[in-house]
From TrEMBL:
PROSITE patterns recorded: SRP54
Keyword Metal-binding: no
Domain SRP54-type proteins GTP-binding, first and last residues per copy: 270-283
Protein name: Signal recognition particle protein
Subunit structure and binding partners: Part of the signal recognition particle protein translocation system, which is composed of SRP and FtsY.
HAMAP family (UniProt xref): SRP54
High-level lineage: Bacteria, Bacillati, Bacillota, Bacilli, Lactobacillales
UniProt keyword list: Cytoplasm, GTP-binding, Hydrolase, Nucleotide-binding, Ribonucleoprotein, RNA-binding, Signal recognition particle
Subcellular location: Cytoplasm
Signal peptide span: none
Domain note: Composed of three domains: the N-terminal N domain, which is responsible for interactions with the ribosome, the central G domain, which binds GTP, and the C-terminal M domain, which binds the RNA and the signal sequence of the RNC.
């Protein structure tokens, strides 16, 4: 996952100054140097790195970090603020035009994830706004792109307009827009051709399509894995076309993530969405504050809450909150939560989003697949009501009985009980607020 290296280095830096009580100027200078190196190694541009470290130094002086008895937390807060500022403060959603359809022109180099992003955005609009988008296949140089878009359209039950590969893309866009107006589609996504590198012919074609379609949004799709190149590409496209937003893809990959920090600062164009996987649901709104806390290793609790909200209804959430508050989170609830969580996505990804959890001993144990889940359910089903409500009564003898009853072995039963206890401890921690987890993480 992106930022792992940066997060680790920043954490190590903060750890050095935590537990020290007051720090002196040389501690602060060292910390600044380490923050600078950590940013540069994560592929953050020199300009942005300088900006961040200069502002952090200035702020640290102003905030009297040297006089503070919690210098590490003050510095973390300052770095957090600066990261958020550099990434653009607020999240920005897709702009909507006053008259339908809202036209979104999707541009980018080949392989950046443009076509996939069209599918992801269309899915999101259909799911959240009941939108009726039309997708226009204007990438005539790569026949596979048209097929890919058509397949996406079938999956999403969204119409795709194409005229094959022998027609001028400008013409296709014109006819596609006529159709959208006729059919009252509220959104139109134009999937355009990419090249391996930027060339004039590509830009000329895009300019013509822009001229004709007068889009509300020109979204540039860039691959986070390409690092500084992503920033250069963003600058080039912006100079030529005037882009309105960026979709940063492949943030799930083995990327150092620096592009996320540099793009907004370098181009002034906001990152609107991030791609976090190949599936159509792997698209998140880009929240600078959440990204900053992720970079600082404080997890991404808000994104997790968002994901959870997609799965839970209000009543379930309130019920769960009440149980945690009253310390009544029992094994039945645990299985129910696991069931919900199963539907939210891969467990190891979720674990990374929870502040402090990835650092907790045993966090690695909270990973399992579908089959494990069926086994867990079988184990809990073999417990008595009393046992489910109070895990403390689960003596070795009872555990052996449960193992026999569920056809699993005792070790598995033990593991489940341990996972349940860890989860319930964690829930209590979260209930008490983030600070607890943070303190624990930076404790010297
Ligand atoms: P295009 O040439 O820009 O239209 O790119 P595609 O949409 O065809 O994507 C190129 C490849 O990147 C495909 O294999 C996609 O599945 C993959 N891809 C796109 N977005 C993401 C992402 O956010 N994460 C990961 N891991 N892969 C992605």
């Amino acid at each position: 996952m992106a930022f792992e290296g940066l997060t680790e280095r920043l954490k190590a830096t903060f750890k050095k100054i935590s537990g020290k009580g007051r720090i002196n100027q040389s501690d602060l200078d060292n910390a600044m140097r380490e923050i600078r190196t950590a940013l540069l190694e994560a592929d953050v541009s020199l300009k942005v790195t300088r900006q961040i470290t200069r502002r952090v130094s200035d702020e640290a002086l102003g905030a009297h970090v040297l006089d503070s008895i919690t210098p590490d937390q003050q510095i973390i807060k300052i770095v957090d603020d600066e990261l958020i500022k550099v990434m653009g403060d607020e999240a920005s959603e897709l702009n909507k035009s006053k008259h339908i359809p809202t036209i979104v022109l999707m541009v980018g180099l080949q392989g950046a994830g443009k076509t996939t992003a069209v599918g992801k955005l269309a899915r999101r609009l259909v799911k959240e706004n009941n939108a009726r988008p039309l997708l226009i296949a204007a990438d005539v140089y790569r026949p596979a792109a048209i097929d890919q878009l058509k397949t996406l359209g079938e999956t999403l039950k969204v119409p795709v307009y194409d005229e094959g590969t022998d027609v001028d893309p400008v013409e296709i866009v014109k006819n596609g827009l006529d159709l959208a107006r006729k059919n009252n589609n509220d959104y139109v996504f134009i999937d355009t051709a990419g090249r391996l590198t930027i060339d004039e012919q590509l830009m000329d074609e895009l300019k013509k399509i822009k001229e004709l379609s007068q889009p509300t949004e020109i979204l540039l799709v860039v691959d986070a894995m390409t690092g500084q190149t992503a920033v250069d590409v963003a600058n080039d496209f912006n100079d030529a076309l005037g882009i309105t937003g960026v979709v940063l893809t492949k943030l799930d990959g083995d990327t150092r993530g620096g592009a996320a920090l540099s793009i907004r600062y370098d181009t002034g164009v906001p990152i609107k969405f991030v791609g976090t996987g190949e599936k159509l649901s792997d698209l998140d709104v880009f929240y600078p504050d959440r990204m900053a806390s992720r970079i600082l290793g404080m997890g991404d609790i808000l994104s997790l809450v968002d994901k959870a909200q997609e799965q839970y209804n209000e009543q379930q959430a309130q019920e769960l909150a009440r149980k945690i508050q009253e310390n009544n989170f029992d094994l039945d609830d645990f299985i129910e939560q696991m069931d919900q969580v199963q539907q939210m996505g891969p467990m190891d990804e979720l674990v990374k989003m929870i502040p402090g959890l990835s650092d907790m001993p045993g966090a690695a144990n909270i990973q399992f697949g579908d089959k494990d889940f069926a086994h867990m359910r079988a184990i809990v089903s073999s417990m008595t009501q009393e046992e489910r409500m109070n895990a403390d009564v689960l003596t070795p003898k009872r555990r052996r009985r449960i193992a026999a009853g569920s056809g699993r072995d005792v070790m598995e039963v033990n593991r489940l009980i341990k996972q349940y206890k860890q989860t319930s401890t964690l829930m209590n921690k979260m209930q008490k607020g983030n600070m607890g987890a943070m303190d624990q993480m930076f404790a010297g």
